[in-house]
Amino acid sequence: MEWTKREMDWYYKALKYNYYPQNVIDFIRPLIKDKKSVIDVGSGIGTFAMNLVNDFEKIIAVDQSKEMIDYFKNIIKNNNNKANFKFKIGDWNNIDFENDFPIGALITAYSGEEVIGNKKSINKMTNLINGYIFLFVPTNREKHSFYSDVLYERLGKMKRNRSYIAEDVKRILDKMNINYKCKKFNYNFGQIFSDFDDAVDFFKFHYDLEQSEIKVLEGFLHDYLKRRDDYLWIDNYKESTMFYWKNSVR
User: Which of 3.40.640.10, 3.40.1000.20, 1.20.1250.20, 3.40.50.150 is the CATH number of 5-142+161-189+239-247?
Assistant: First the structure.
């Protein structure tokens, strides 16, 4: 699903006020310190790739969305970043990396079944990467982000579930006899808002709410928004699982 410019703005704002990507990078950094190149599959606007600029000589960012890659490029431009980025737009499974082979590490985060849920994709990783492969995925099926379980209960709606999670990844890796390790991450990836109306717009947009449901939303936000300095904040407690293993290509 394509993200709009507004969604990317909200997400980028959250990244600037959270330590979520840096915590993951701090864990993998000792494992990648001798590598020169990394590929970020499903890079989006650069959540992880931007935090790897001091660790690799070359960073390959792959995403199906041209809009997200363009947004990522604009972040790099505005930050005057000199890292050697290479961008590829399209379906990871159909992109040729022959001229980049071998790559020293791969990371993919919340990238979906087409990347982490099929044998073809995992085989492609193992044929391309001469180093560690990191698959960062949601641990649980239910989405409890932003206290949405409370919001859905107040709206009288069913909770949303994720389609692909850690247990699904474990199943396919086990079938492929991959000798992986796991690490769980618990973190707060909260969202900031410039004012109350901004928060209403965010939830109305992300939860596809009708005008008749706004009063319920406003009551929910009055209960869960917090004031921090000159902005509003809502917690977003998450649990993710990292599957990782050292791979070698001949």
Answer: 3.40.50.150
